[in-house]
Structure formats: C-alpha cells, structure tokens
Amino acid sequence: MTDFDTLMMRRALDLARLGTGYARPNPLVGCVVTHEGRVIGEGWHRQYGGPHAEVNALAAVADQRLLAHSRVYVTLEPCSHFGKTPPCADLLIAKGVKEVVVCNLDPNPLVAGRGLEKLRAAGIHVETGVLEAEGRWLNRRFFTFQEKKRPYVVLKWAETADGYLAGPYFQPVRISGPLAQAAVHQWRTEEQAILVGTRTALHDNPRLNAREWPGQNPIRVVIDKNLSLPPTHHLFDGQQPTLVYTYRERATKDNLGYITLSEADDLFPQLFSNLYQRNVQSVLVEGGPTVLSSLLRDGLWDEMRILRSRQNLGGGIAAPRHGLSGLHEQFTLGEDDVFVYRQ
Q1: Which domains are assigned to the chain?
Q2: Which residues neighbour 328 within 8 Å (Cβ) at sequence distance 6 or greater?
Q3: Are 184 and 275 in contact (CB under 8 A)?
Q4: What is the bridge-based pairing of β-strands 38-44 and 30-35?
Q5: What's the rounded Cα separation, in Å, for the pair 36 and 125?
Q6: Which prosthetic group or cofactor does it need (predicted)?
C-alpha cells in the first residue's frame, strides 16, 4: 500500500459519507478512478435504488478509453448480484478496468467475496484492506446489521451539569442550547429509526422528526406496553411511519403499525429482532431513563452520545449512570459538551 493508495481511499471514504441518510439501507460507498496518478472520475451511492458508486464514478470519466489502463478505488467490495441495479463487478469487467483496490469486504451473504472472485477470474488485479478500520467505522451500521442480525443502536440523552435530564415528575426542561439541538436533528437524519419509551412519549409529546436539519425523517418507534398513550399525541399524527411495540392487540392502519410482543420474553431482543426483519439498520434511542438504563445494563448498544449542559437543575429525574471508560470523542457545541462512547 502506497501513500497514493491511502490518499485515494480516504477520498473515496469522504465521497461515501455524502450518502449518509440517503443510501440506507444500502451501505455507504464511494469510488475514485485514477489513471497514471491522476483522478479521472469520482462517484458515490447517492440514493437507495439509484446507481451505485462504481457506476457513477465510471460514468464520470470523460475519456472512456482510459478505463482499460485505470486503477479503481472503492470503499466496499463491488456487488456480484442483481438487486435494484446490475452487478458492479460485471460493469468493472466490461469496462476493461485493470486494477481494483478495496477498503472492506462485503459481509452480505449475497456478495461475501463473490465480487472479488469475479474480478480476479476476469484477470483484474485486486488489493484489499486499505484503510479497513476507517471503512468499518463509516459503515458501522451496515456491518452491525449484517454480523449481529440487529440494528446499530445509538443511545442519546441531554443532561444538566448536576446529572438530571428532566424536572421533578418528568416535567420537561430545556437543557441543550440551539447548536446541540440542531446536532440532534442532524443525528436523526443519519439513523433509520428513533425510539422512545412510554413516559417520554407521554410527558414530552415529541414529534421525533428532523425539522431543524435537512434530510429524511426517521421511522418513529415507541414502546407502549398497555396502549396507554393518548391518540392525540404527535406520535399518532400520521406524518411519518410509526411503529408501536405493545403487549396488547391493535390493528395497523395507514402510517401507524402495532407490533404485539410476548410478555414472557425480554422486550428489547424481541423489538430489535423485529426491526431487523423490517430491514431497519440503525436506531437512535432518545429515552427515557428507564429505556436507556435497561439497554446499558444489558449491553444492547453500540454508541452513546451524551450532551451535557453547564446549567444545574438542583433536582428531578436523574440521567442514567453508565460508569464507562473508553471515551471515543469529546467536543463542544455552543454551551454544551458532547461525550461519545462506543462499544
């Protein structure tokens, strides 16, 4: 692996990131085409159902004759099967590409090495593992979904400097500043679903959309074991797909689905299994404290984001106590400090 290989793969990863929130449930993929040390084409997977990164990058090459002498960098193993689009491995072969450099192998059983086998069988020189760790982090949702058979779980909450996330009796309190609130709405566009428990839904009456950031709204997921939430709450306004997980029976209608869980089994493994079956690759958990503490206790999470205000509340509902080391990232957003942990 040369410095040029690293530079080109990093560029491909940057391109792939542009598809965040739009390519799902497909992985994020970027592609760079080079000829004699010069970039001649770039592309990424812009939209689910649309052309893949390799298709866009190869089409961007002005002089198609150069492809027969090109070196292609792609962040994920080119697909080898027919889905919504034809196999990218076949396209690379048809274009006469001579060399392909891959960041990560695709864990999807429909691919899982078959794309590379096709390329090598056609005489294309293939290299793998360039910036592999960076690629896995970029596509952590996709890899978790494929390997663990459940969505990637992000826990998020806002707390005061003295460790509270709501006032007494769950009275809503504005904790985060405007920059942190905008960041939360950006995070909502990056995850496929957003989850809250009964108390948070009852007391906060949240919309759970991304009105303060451009992008797609997540699927709303609410736990309402006994169907006690008022039908007048925002969650039931039909404005975006909503799933209610309950121990009771109720018919699904329009944009509102009811899923009955077994009281005899643990709730969250059932819920995550159902989301997996629905091809939901990631979920942002925004509360409340009982839901967050349960997931922390059982280790059913992948990433945790805590927004800590500098104000004190003096009492109320305590934020979860996680007791974790291994802080991954820390930064400041206006008057809030953000702490990111990962499993």
Answers
A1: 3-144 (3.40.140.10), 149-342 (3.40.430.10)
A2: 340, 341, 342
A3: no
A4: antiparallel
A5: 16
A6: Zn(2+)
> Do the annotations mark residue 289 as ligand-binding?
yes
- Tell whether 293 is in a known binding site: yes
pLDDT tens-digit readout, 77-109: 998 766 666 789 999 999 999 999 999 999 887
- Predicted confidence at residue 326, as pLDDT, reads 76
Residue 333 phi/psi, 5° resolution?
-125, 100
Place of tokens 């080898």: 80
Q: Which 3 state secondary structure label does DSSP give 327? A: strand
pLDDT tens, residue by residue, 107-125: 887 777 889 999 999 999 9
**What is the rounded distance in angstroms from the CA atom of residue 151 to the CA atom of residue 142?**
8
Predicted model pTM:
0.93
Query: Could you say which of 54, 159, 190, 303 is catalytic?
Result: 54
Q: How many angstroms separate the CA atoms of 200 and 205, rounded? A: 7
Q: What is the pLDDT of residues 138-182, one digit of tens each?
A: 999 999 999 999 999 999 999 999 999 988 988 888 899 999 999
In 3D space, the residue among 216, 233, 237 whose CA is nearest the CA of residue 224 turns out to be: 233
Q: Residue 6's closest CA among 99, 132, 167?
A: 132
**42 carries an active-site annotation:** no
3-state helix, strand, coil in the chain (%, to 5): 30, 25, 45
What's the token pair of residue 221? 């997921």
Q: Distance between CA atoms of 128 and 85, rounded to whole angstroms?
A: 24
- Quote the CA–CA distance of 199 and 301 in Å, as a whole number: 21
Task: Say whether 328 counts as a known binding-site residue.
Answer: no
